Amino acid sequence: MLPGLLTETFGVVDVDRHKERDGFVTLKKARIKLRALLVAKTAGSGEHHFFAPGSISANGVMEGVDIKARHANGTASYIVAPGTVAPWGRYERVKGDLDLLADAIEHETLPPVPDALHRAVPMHDRGEVKAAVDQSGIPEAVAIARQMAERAKRVLKDAANNGEPRTPALFDQAVHLGTFVACCTCTIKEATSALMQAAVAAG
Fold first, then answer.
1. Is 167 exposed, middle or buried (0-12, 13-18, 19+ CB in 10 A)?
2. Cα–Cα dist 6/81, whole Å
3. DSSP label at 94?
């Protein structure tokens, strides 16, 4: 068991770097800047950026980017604490410290998760259904939709390569892309094309 922190009074943007999945590149392309008070390097060369609570926990919000926070049912997520030495590597603080985090939590001065990331959380992860808002005029939202379409292809291909069931993965990606269609950041034709290409690539 590793020392960990529950995301009850804060949220974390988890940026991963695994082979072709590079969350740092994803954020740069989407022009999203993380301005966290506390940043910790993970054992896998990724980073944990600490933000104010309020977001919903979701994996794969963007390519290589997860949000660790409370789930829609109210339960908290778990992250490995900065300073931990695991068998596979170290989790090191690179900006701020736990005292600063505690003070920011007490005085409610943690910055919020960037809006662009919060908007990218799928509705089924939020546990709520609201009327979609037309975001076709927001360049960042359109850019995220295009990245998610490319991500769908990689997710299906990875599932096939790993011997995992492809139907559930295809369903999840269809639901995810459907939220972008509803917000007018990609068309039904574009989403369908991406899913078809993903299915063909996965065999």
1. exposed
2. 9
3. E
Residue 16 sits in the same domain as residue 107:
yes
**Cβ-based neighbours of 101, under 8 Å, separated by 6 or more:** 10, 37, 38, 50, 110
- pLDDT tens string 110-159: 998 888 887 777 665 555 555 567 777 888 777 877 887 787 777 777 77
CB within 8 Å of 165: residues ≥ 6 apart: 159
CA angle at residue 101 from 100 to 103, to 5 degrees? 65
Question: Looking at the structure, do residues 83 and 146 belong to the same domain, yes or no?
Answer: no
Under DSSP, the state recorded for 21 is E
> Residues 162, 85: one domain?
no
User: The tokens 């999840």 sit on which residue?
Assistant: 172
pLDDT tens profile 35-82:
898 999 998 889 999 999 877 788 888 888 989 888 766 778 888 888
What is the total residue count of the chain? 203
Q: Which domain holds residue 82?
A: 4-113
Q: How many domains does the structure of the chain reveal?
A: 2
Task: Classify 4 as helix, strand or coil.
Answer: strand
